[in-house]
Design goal:
Structural class: alpha/beta
Number of domains: 2
CATH topology of the largest domain: Rossmann fold
Radius of gyration: 25 Å
Strand content: 15-25%
Strand order of the largest sheet: 5-4-6-7-3-10-11-12-13
Distance between the termini: 89 Å
Helix content: 40-55%
CATH superfamily of the largest domain: P-loop containing nucleotide triphosphate hydrolases
Shape: globular
CATH class of the largest domain: Alpha Beta
Order of helices and strands: HHHHHHEHEEHEHHEHEHHEEEHEEEE
Low-confidence stretches: 1-6, 25-32
Mean pLDDT: 88
């Protein structure tokens, strides 16, 4: 009899547990579906200001600094810190185990340069969710690699879009046509899938980097590759003398941090070219040094030094990588693309 009397209570307990579980699932969905308008102190006008400068979701707010939120909205420092804290608490931004990170690394994609030797040097191609920097003197092949990547990316990932931020007037559609024919792509389609913007100064260059998210979120484009050619040309021209060095480095750092954020959030590849200078106090070895100093060096995931080789070849040296050994690869720049020696 006791068993018969206890069964309805057990059923009721089970029903209550299942109801609580349903409520918890609904609550979790509500948290996940939160928008920036749900943050404390963010009204329609403030939300519009945030969206205008690229803060369109909780993640973009969570990874921002209070100063950036203040500049975008005009709110106080305390209010900016509060909305950032709420955004972070609404998202899973804690620690994760190494095996979880390894599993997430399986989503990393790679864009081929067309040269097997160069691809092997950098682990199979230029990696997504990372910034790859190539620096070298004029004519060393930096822009040619950018053009080759823009075409090969479309071959590997049909329907993808490439963003090309041109600061030195180096983008040539005729070169894209040659490369597209070389790998069997329709030249007209290849050009259509490359969004080119000429940056006229450092502010414009930084703005264009921020606008990449608009192409992804508002226009629905499948952006797989962002090219900045070159990264430091405008910064070098606008900030002259030691008195402006600190400001220049801060702005370069902010620009590269934005590129890194876009690369990580959307799992896309970022390729930047960099100018060089000659160090007059170097008496032994190669005096060539990349512009941007340690700021650019630390912000770049992979760094490749390009130089001219024998008989018109180019030599790429991997000088920095988080997981690959230093090494060199030689290749030719031909009409149809990059070819191995």
């Amino acid at each position: 009899m006791e068993q018969i009397l206890m069964e309805p209570e057990a059923l009721q307990n089970n029903e209550k547990k299942s109801e609580r579980a349903k409520v918890r699932i609904k609550e979790e969905k509500v948290v996940k579906e939160k928008t920036i308008a749900d943050l404390p102190g963010v009204g329609p006008a403030t939300a519009e200001k945030l969206e205008m400068v690229g803060y369109t979701d909780l993640m973009s707010i969570a990874v921002a600094t209070p100063g950036e939120i203040e500049d975008a909205t005009g709110m106080s420092g305390a209010a900016a810190k509060r909305i950032i804290a709420v955004a972070r608490s609404s998202l899973e931004m804690g620690f994760e185990s190494g095996d979880e990170l390894l599993k997430r690394r399986e989503q990393v994609t790679r864009v081929s340069t067309g040269s097997k030797a160069l691809d092997d040097l950098i682990g199979g191609g230029f990696e997504s969710a990372a910034i790859t920097e190539c620096f070298g003197e004029y004519g060393s092949g930096k822009t040619q690699i950018g053009h080759a990547l823009a075409v090969n990316c479309q071959k590997q990932y049909p329907g993808s879009t490439v963003v090309y931020i041109d600061t030195e007037n180096t983008f040539r559609p005729e070169r894209i046509e040659q490369l597209a024919k070389g790998i069997g792509l329709n030249p007209a389609e290849a050009l259509k899938n490359i969004k080119v913007a000429k940056a006229f100064n450092t502010d414009h260059q930084s703005l264009l980097a921020e606008k990449v998210e608009d192409l992804i979120k508002k226009q629905g484009l499948n952006v797989k590759l962002v090219i900045v050619d070159s990264l430091t040309a405008h910064f070098r021209a606008e900030f002259i003398g030691r008195g402006t060095l600190a400001d220049r480095q801060q702005r370069i750092n902010r620009h590269m941090r934005e590129l890194s954020r876009i690369a990580n959030m959307h799992n896309l590849t970022v390729y930047v070219t960099n100018q060089v200078m000659s160090k007059p106090d170097t008496f032994f070895g190669d005096p060539t040094q990349a512009i941007g100093g340690h700021i650019v060096g630390h912000a770049s995931t992979f760094r490749i030094y390009l130089r001219k080789g024998k008989k018109g070849s180019r030599v790429a040296k991997l000088v920095d990588s988080p997981n690959l050994p230093e090494g060199e690869a030689s290749f030719y720049v031909e009409t149809s693309g990059l070819k191995d020696i």
